[in-house]
Amino acid sequence: MNEPNLDKFLKKVPKLKNLFEKTGLIKNTGKSQENRLIFINNIYPDDFKDRKRIDYGNNRIRTSKYSLISFLPKNLYEQFRRVANFYFLVNILITFLLPEPPKNPFTSMIPLAMVVTFTAIKQAYEDFLRHQSDSEVNNDLVRVIKNGNFVNIKRKDIKCGDIIEVKVDNSFPCDMLLLHAQTEDGSCHVTTANLDGETNLKLRSLPKKFPLFKDKSELINLKGRITCDKPNVDLYEFKGKLEIDNSKYFLSNENLLLRGSTLKIASVIYGCAIYTGKDTKLMLNSKFKASKLSCIERTLNKFILFFLALLFLYATACLFGSIIYKNLYTDHWYLRNIEPKFYGNKFLYYLIEVLFYLSLFSNIIPISMYISIESQKFLGTKFFEWDINMYDENMDQPAKANNSNINEDLGQVEYLFTDKTGTLTENEMIFRQFYLNGNIYDFKNGLVKKLGSDEPVKNLLEFENFFLCLCLCHTVQVDYKAKEKYQASSPDEYSFIIFCEKLGIVFKGDVRSFSSQIRSIDYFGQDLNYELLHILEFDSFRAEDSILSKCTQNDSENFLGAINQFANHGWRTLAMAYKTIEQKDYEFYDQLLKEAYNDLSEKRNETLKTLFDTIESNLDLIGCSAVEDRLQDDVSSTLVDLRRAGIKIWVLTGDKKETAINISDSCKHFSPKMHKMFLTDFNDINLLMDRLNSDLNYVKDHKNKKSFAYIIDGKTLSYVFKFELGNNFRNICLYCDAVLCCRMSPSQKAEVVKLVKESKTKPITCAIGDGANDVSMIQEAHIGLGIFGKEGRHAVRSSDFAFAKFKHLKRALLVHGYLFYSRLSTLVLYFFYKNLVFVNCQIFYAPTTGFSVQSLYHGIYMMFYNVFFTSFPIVIYGLLEQKINIGKLEMDPKFYKTIRKNKLLSLFQFAKWNLLGFWHSLVAYYSTYFLYTGDLISIAPNGQISGEVQYGTIVFIQVLIIVHLKLFIEWKAINLFAFTSYFMSLLAFVIYCIIPNSFIIPYPLTAFTENQSLYWVFYKILSYPSIWLCIFLSSSIALIPDILIHIFENVFEEYKEKLNDKMANRIKSKYLDDVPHYMNEQHKKREKLKRRKSINWKIQDKYNESFKLSQSINNQSNFQNKSDKTVNLENSEINEQFFRYHREYRF
């Protein structure tokens, strides 16, 4: 039954739906089909009878995933969705059903049971902790009004409509509508750090014109009706209306107190419960994100399918071998023969025979691989978060990993999509210049000067409208008790307030009363008060449609010229305008706004947008502002290094074209050698199509001669998507090294990412941003990266990984990405390799036993080969191995190119490991075979004949030694932990050999192993020197190809590096102007460093070089009378150079 049909069925049987929700088999989405109706204090009108319809449940929360009833079926279902687990389950069932199984079913059942049990215990423990947390929260006491009195009840017993008391520094138990606060204006402040990560105070106020209660006693018998929208996940979306005594008040997000936020400043508040329990916005946002599938996981599924096909091939080959053997040797009556049982039914006989071999060779699929991968990924993310080089001291913020499923994709990024503001820049706005009355004015050191003049403007009163616009049109709040007096959600608005304050125009805050909200300003010592009537809230879509008019043609040209001039500096520009509204017009707009705010239908937002556009039309132009948003540290070098790593970078921004281009030039997103191509300001679809075709032909013809940068604006891009020209646009951009998309909306950002992601080559995409407008593209990309910025934590919450600064992206990709991918790819190849060696020996044993489906290995060896005997070293390898030094990875991006496009799991690498595995198994088995056929150890000194258990044990020991030595060869950074892991594996094998070898296993325990006894077998093997000589020789012979391959690869890499250095000297790099000075002639420095013996001497030598260079610059600056600014700049470059040298040597 699919989900829609299940929903329809459960709606008809609500009791069954409630049962499913309680047991955890389904989750309540918190959605309803109509608006929510709530009665304050749960006092219902006499004529209202449908009370069951508005019973929205209690306030119990449940973050746990399982219940006692649902744990077993739900957990088993989740585990057996995995191909490997399901495969082993089917194999066990087949083994049980076979008439004479080739191995004890418990040899497969016990490892599978261990894996499933381990995973179940881990998940049960995690869920138990969630249950404990839920119980603690649900049983916390709160104070509410019940039956006309304030009483204490448990949080879980809160119902919608209850009036709740919350004291300062306490969190809100549910989503509440503010009704009363013990402050002058009835408002309060909250922090929402637990919801969106924002630490600044947010104002929450009473509904507009809502009466102020004198005392909490007035709330006891308060009656009213609240109609609001159904529960939704948007933290910033709430609309409704409140009806009390025939008065209506429209409700917005500013009146809502969310669960998870904390009360500040006000000593106590009272609010009415709106959303409770699972319907609160906090709980609706706590759902698990849809899991992403990494490139290795996709490859892993292909590998499993290949080995399943190989398994069937082995089984079929053995079937034909069995038929041929039995036809040739008809007198071998002692061999197993099940054919008579099927009375001549050949098909059924052949099918059963194939199932025999499938059961015998089932270990070709590594059962413990998934546990090892999960452990490696989980612990790997801890190393990511513990990296001190990705910790930001100013913000006291380490890196954060939200999703461990796609660690390795950090090493596969081909396209990087980045926001500009707050991502490439600091998002710290500094007011620089403004345009007014046809002139441009500069602002420095608290003085306003006309551009080009040294005299400050003395009479600022003539700029009254401009200053009032800056001081009035914002949402900044004043809190004199906080560390930061001004609490602003917009950095631009904060810069306006600071600019005005420095000039003597101080915003003093808002004063609220029953009927009005007064905005107070100290205007050069004069108190000005303005009544705040309405706020037409900003959004990125509507801002593009606002209309500026009533300015002369000449003034319009000057204004646009000033805008372009500001943009060429890379500054953010905002236009200021105003108009006078007559009282009757205001009353008309006011009535329409009230109706729109009270409208709870889906048309509400569209109606408000139309109203806003109407009110904002026919404005009188005042001027415009220029605010500088500085680039973050090391942005340029980060972008250059990422491009040298083969990553193509796209900047997606909402800024205007000139500003975006200037920033792209200054941050080295655009190289001076790049040929810029523009696709902007297109209105005609035919012209756009022609331009796209001509651009595509041009880049194809010159792709090997030029480097391209492509610039497109949001308006043109909307035509591209509207008329399905995305393929043409994408094909052009695939030839470009850098792309800039300006004037972009959030939805367009996601569309662009999706367009590139769906290319034929299926490249791995990565998107990075810091604000709510970046969430869509972060979620659309394969890897989403968030920046802990000043625009809240929306991006961080939606991302897979997050850190404080853009410069940390370089280390995240070039270091952690490389290590994640290289380690995990070797882990996957090694697991398949060692199982292939193990099973191939069983294949070679089949002809020796006349294809009688005889097992080579004892059941204990088959049970614990993957789980204990070979698992410890590879897990440590997956956590600690460093094929290349971390310092080299960070300093030289070329290493990143060597792993992109899944190169370490390519068909060549997969075939190489499998061929080596085939060779290793061949040597391990036939060395033992020839040892036995040579009569060296077939008969013991006491005359006893060696049995098949001893034979299989010798083969198993050789397999174990060879696969361990194979991994040892792969290690580059061998360490104490690696030796410890080998010791643990050896210890596990010795323990499992000594115990069965020292005692005769009694009958009840033989049910879990083969009937063959291991008693004294291991000790017999120890007594034969020829066996140990054979093991030594066979292991040495088996690993000769591996050693030769590694020698060849090392020599080839050194030759390739020298060749690249020579080519770098002869051929000018495509990005030579971008390469930092410390990377030029890098090969010369490397050769010089090789000749040094002491790291201390290296540092001292470079320090002396930097000191001399600094002295020469100082002398030159004195000679040429350079400015202090230039000298300081050059000295800072020397210091930076020395710092990079020092960092290189440290590694």
Overview of this protein structure:
The protein is of the alpha+beta class. Among the domains are: 1-30, no CATH class; 369-381 and 832-1057, no CATH class; 400-423 and 632-803, HAD superfamily/HAD-like (Rossmann fold); 428-602 and 620-626, 3-Layer(aba) Sandwich (Calcium-transporting ATPase, cytoplasmic domain N); 1092-1146. The chain is 48% helix and 16% strand. It is built from 37 helices and 33 strands. The strands form 7 sheets. The chain has a 9-stranded mixed beta sheet with strand order 14-33-32-31-15-27-30-29-28, sandwiched between helices. Strand 28 (674-679), helix 18 (685-701) and strand 29 form a beta-alpha-beta unit. Helix 13 packs parallel to helix 17 (657-666) and helix 24 (808-848) runs parallel beside helix 29 (907-933). The longest helix is centred in the last third of the chain and has 42 residues, at 1025-1066. Residues 29-33, 540-554, 1067-1103 and 1106-1147 have low confidence and may be disordered. Residues 50-108 form the P-type ATPase N-terminal domain. It holds the Pfam family Cation_ATPase.
